[in-house]
Amino acid sequence: MVELVSRLGRPVADYALAQEEALRRFGMAAWRVSSRLSITLLLALMTLMLTEWLARGTLSGFSDYLLSPTRPGGVALIVLALLFVATDTLFGRDHLSAVILLPMALLPAFLSMQKQQYLSDPLYPSDMLFGHQIGELVPVIFATRPLASICLIAGTLALLLLLGYLFVLGRRHLPTLSTTSKLVRLAVTLPLIAGFLSLMGTNGSSYVRDRLNIIPMMWDQTENYRHNGFLLAFAINLPMANISVPQDYGAEAIAGITPDAMPAGLLAGRDADVIIVMSESLWDPTRLSKTTLSPDPMPTIRANQSGHMFSPEFGGMTANVEFEALTGFSNAFLPYGSIPYQQYIRRPLPSLATFFSSKGYVTRAFHPFQSWFWNRGNVYDALGFDGFESEENLPEMDKRGMFASDEALTKEIIRQADATRDPFFFFAVTLQGHGPYEKNRYARNTIDIRSDVLTPSSRDSVATFAQGVREADDSLKALMDWAKTRHRETIIVLFGDHLPPLGTAYTETGYMPDVVATRKASVGVMKREHETPLVVWSSKRGLQKDIGSVSPSQLPYHVVRLAGYRHPFYTGVLGGVAERYAIIDRHQLVDRDDRAQPDWSTSGAAIDPLIRDYRYLQHDQMFGDAFGTARFFPELTERAGAAGS
């Protein structure tokens, strides 16, 4: 019998078997690749779904986000899968990346959910700059919710142990990647990831980004996170610290700004002492709908109210309000979600402190918490304060719950004022009114709360908050009574930094549709949800009336003018802005007649030259070449000369 032989001299049967074996091996390899890719896609899908669920608090819109051709959910899924593959390559094991990337994605999503409950905004990359501060607040949270805190700590430790165990287990048992496989994976994933990173810049348009429906909605971060999803929006915000230069900014633009017609030093002022108190979460609780408070928790404030402060924040971000009130600059000109105290103040800046210091005043800041909080220790130095009285160097103060009392802080301000011979400018940030408003913070609540709609827990929160307002009011009265006995004129300014985080008390009473304030609405709604009391009073000239509802950035104008001084920026540029506009918000300009210009900064319409010049000067001092320092902020030049000598 003749055996069939192939051209290569091999038996045909053996050749067929070899081909069959090759096909089998190829099929097995293809199956391994496809199955591994499928598992990677499933891990990426699970990560995306869980992060969206945590960040949104619901999965109701997830399918639309993932499947809609007008949303970038599919892009987010692919990018996550690429990151999983690249991380697997780094560790040399298939799917080991899940132990690393999954918790890295879920933790910020969880923190974003928590932040939105209290501050109405999602988590921004810049929030990571003050993670240490969040850690320092843990004792406060533990004191108010000990059982929940213990469970959280125990759960965190258990999760870390589990992740460590899974990582070790994965290193032992998951498939090892060959050198060839690693090279192929890196050759595919790294260029694609690099291409994606190139799309993250938000200045200017991008054809590819637009085709992928990745739309950086920096003007409305709530919509930005809704449209792009948490992970993409968070990544888009990474370049947030990159400040765009205003169009046509330069030496010529600054030279074209007309300063105050009267030179800064022409009027000597009255050497009046100035005390500004930014009262933590101070707000009028009698505004709550369907709720009666008795007696009035703020009789002194109400009798001496000059108007309202229109806060750009809600429930927190005190430092942003403080930044405006001290510098006269506006958050409206800065990236949404940024924190100037953390990100931008890295050099001497003009402020009320530098101005009054140039007039021979003693300038001092007070805050009964640690100096690192909100980076105040460094910031106050940059703003020109002579000293900062913080928890580290203040005498021990009586507490209300976990926080130093307004009464104790007021007594210390008076003590230091009496010991100061020269005119002084004091700026104080209180702490007593800080949330959460736990039951039994006070030994006795003196304000009766009557409401048919508040739940017991919400009623307790309102009662605690109202008692704090009552004590803040008593402290203002003590400060005013003391000022009336002094020979030298004393100007006292008091305002709240933002509405308190009262949670469901707002929705239960119908005061607001949500537990956090609206960021973009009609003037009436915005005022309702962002106004706090404002008192501007002089021991010699009495109450300054009819200031209206103004942004914190307008405060330096009123203070410098009341003190009897003229200044190229504070009474010149800011004075011109104040005559025309009451509120400078990133979403709308509101004039003195409550007429609004919504989306003024993003609509493409021509910007009022007053606002344009205002922005030029702010950019010039914060980020630019300081072309206008000598003309508009001569006190900075004097300060630099004094430091140099």
From TrEMBL:
It is found in: Cell membrane. The keyword Transmembrane helix applies. The keyword Cell division does not apply. GO terms for cellular component: plasma membrane. InterPro entries: Alkaline_phosphatase_core_sf, OpgB/LTA_synthase_biosynth, Sulfatase_N. Pfam families: Sulfatase. Keywords: Cell membrane, Membrane, Transferase, Transmembrane, Transmembrane helix. Residues 273-565 form the Sulfatase N-terminal domain. It is a multi-pass membrane protein. This is Phosphoglycerol transferase MdoB-like AlkP superfamily enzyme.
